[in-house]
C-alpha cells in the first residue's frame, strides 16, 4: 500500500472515531433515556479500550496507529456518565473510575501482565458487543442504540485491520480488529433489523 493511501486510511479512521459516539450520545440526550443500551456492554467496552491503549503505549507503537483511542475513550466516559445519570446510578460511576484508574497502572507492572491483558482484551471487547447483542435480542427493540455509531465502528475496525497489516503486524492486535469487525457488523445489522420491524408495526 502506498504511504499516501496509508495516511488516508489513518486520517479517515481518526475522523470517524472523533465523532463515533456522538450519534449515540445525541439519541440518549434527546430521549432523556438510555433504553436499548447495556451499561455492562459499555463498561466492558471501556475496559477493552483502556487495555488496548495501554498495550500500544507500552510497546511504543506509532501514535498514528492508536491516536483515535483516547478520543473514543473520552466519548465512552461521557456516554456512560449520561446513562448512569438517567438510570440514577451516578455514585457507581466514581467506583468504576477508581477501578479503571488502578487497573491502568497495574497491568504494566510486568510484561507478562500486559501481554495477558491484551489477549483478554479481545475477549472483553467481544463480550461487550455480545452483551449488547443479547440486550437487543431480549428486548427485541433497538431503543436508543445508534446504527450509525455501530456502522462507524465497522469502518474503524476494517481500517485498523489494514493499518495493522501495514505497520506493526502485531498478531494479537490484528485478531482483535477482525473479531470486532465481525461483531460490529452483527450489531449494526441487528439494530437495523429491529428498526425495520418497528417501522412496519
Oligomer: single chain
Question: Which percent range fits the helix content?
Answer: over 70%
Which consecutive residue ranges, at least 5 long each, have pLDDT under 50? none
Content-based structural category: mainly alpha
Alpha-carbon Rg, integer: 17 Å
The end-to-end span amounts to 48 Å
Residue fraction in strands: under 5%
Main beta-sheet strand count, sense and barrel state: none
Average pLDDT reading: 89
Tell me the domain tally: 1
Would you list the SSEs in sequence order as H and E?
HHHHHHHH
- Helix count, per DSSP? 8
Report what the structure shows.
With 201 residues, the chain is mainly alpha-helical. It has one domain. It is 81% helix and 0% strand. It has helices at residues 3-18, 22-31, 39-58, 68-87, 90-106, 111-139, 147-166, 171-200. Helix 4 (68-87) runs antiparallel to helix 5. The longest helix is centred in the C-terminal third of the chain and has 30 residues, at 171-200. It is globular, with a radius of gyration of 17 Å.
Amino acid at each position: 500500500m502506498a504511504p499516501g493511501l496509508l495516511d488516508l486510511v489513518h486520517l479517515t479512521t481518526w475522523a470517524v472515531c472523533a465523532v463515533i459516539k456522538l450519534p449515540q450520545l445525541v439519541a440518549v440526550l434527546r430521549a432523556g433515556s438510555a433504553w436499548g443500551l447495556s451499561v455492562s456492554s459499555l463498561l466492558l467496552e471501556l475496559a477493552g479500550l483502556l487495555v488496548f491503549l495501554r498495550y500500544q503505549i507500552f510497546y511504543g507503537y506509532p501514535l498514528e496507529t492508536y491516536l483515535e483511542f483516547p478520543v473514543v475513550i473520552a466519548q465512552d466516559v461521557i456516554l456512560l456518565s449520561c446513562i448512569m445519570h438517567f438510570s440514577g446510578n451516578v455514585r457507581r460511576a466514581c467506583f468504576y473510575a477508581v477501578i479503571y484508574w488502578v487497573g491502568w497502572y497495574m497491568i504494566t507492572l510486568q510484561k507478562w501482565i500486559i501481554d495477558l491483558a491484551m489477549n483478554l482484551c479481545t475477549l472483553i471487547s467481544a463480550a461487550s458487543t455480545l452483551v449488547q447483542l443479547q440486550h437487543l435480542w431480549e428486548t427485541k427493540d433497538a431503543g436508543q442504540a445508534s446504527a450509525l455509531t455501530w456502522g462507524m465502528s465497522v469502518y474503524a475496525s476494517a481500517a485498523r485491520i489494514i493499518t495493522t497489516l501495514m505497520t506493526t503486524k502485531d498478531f494479537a492486535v490484528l485478531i482483535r480488529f477482525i473479531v470486532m469487525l465481525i461483531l460490529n457488523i452483527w450489531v449494526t445489522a441487528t439494530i437495523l433489523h429491529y428498526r425495520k420491524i418497528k417501522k412496519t408495526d
